[in-house]
Amino acid sequence: MVKPVNIVDIATIIRSKNAKPFLFTMDIFFDNLGHYEKAVNSGVINKKLIAKMYHLEDENKAEIYNFAQAWAIKITIPRAVASGGIGDTDIYGAQQHAPLYSIKIPI
């Protein structure tokens, strides 16, 4: 029986940061190859989910890259406000990964 587990139970690092002034990038590093492969093969982490989580009007604005060599998934999305711009609440983009904590992966 497949049981969904919270991503924080199988990932060692979930982080975010700026990727230029107009983009955020988020990284999910897994604790082993098996967990990485289950996350990728499940298809749970996809553009539609990321667009919903981050209120993107167009899911194609999200980019998702899988890096098997590092057991990692990288997600890049546009910032609503440029880094340091008026209304920016996270100049370094260091707090943008929190919504990812709610992802459930079938194991």
Summary?
The protein is of the alpha+beta class.
How many distinct helices? 2
> Which whole number gives the mean pLDDT?
96
Helix vs. strand class: alpha+beta
Relative helix content: 10-25%
For the largest beta sheet, what order do the strands appear in spatially? 2-3-5-4
- Kindly give the count of domains: 1
What is the CATH class designation? Alpha Beta
Outline type: elongated
What series of H and E elements makes up the topology? EEEHHEEE
Report on the architecture of this protein.
The protein is an alpha+beta fold and 107 residues long. The chain has a single domain, classed as Alpha-Beta Plaits. The chain is 16% helix and 32% strand. The strands form 2 sheets. It has a 4-stranded antiparallel β-sheet. Strands 1-6 form a two-stranded antiparallel sheet. Strand 2 (11-18) and strand 3 (23-30) form a beta hairpin. The longest helix has 10 residues, at 33-42. The chain is elongated. The termini are close together.
Q: What attributes characterize this protein structure?
A:
Alpha-Beta Plaits, 6 strands, single chain, 107 residues, two-stranded antiparallel ribbon, alpha+beta
List the topology elements:
Blueprint: E1 4-6, E2 11-18, E3 23-30, H1 33-42, H2 47-53, E4 63-67, E5 72-78, E6 104-106
Antiparallel strand pairs: 1-6, 2-3, 3-5, 4-5
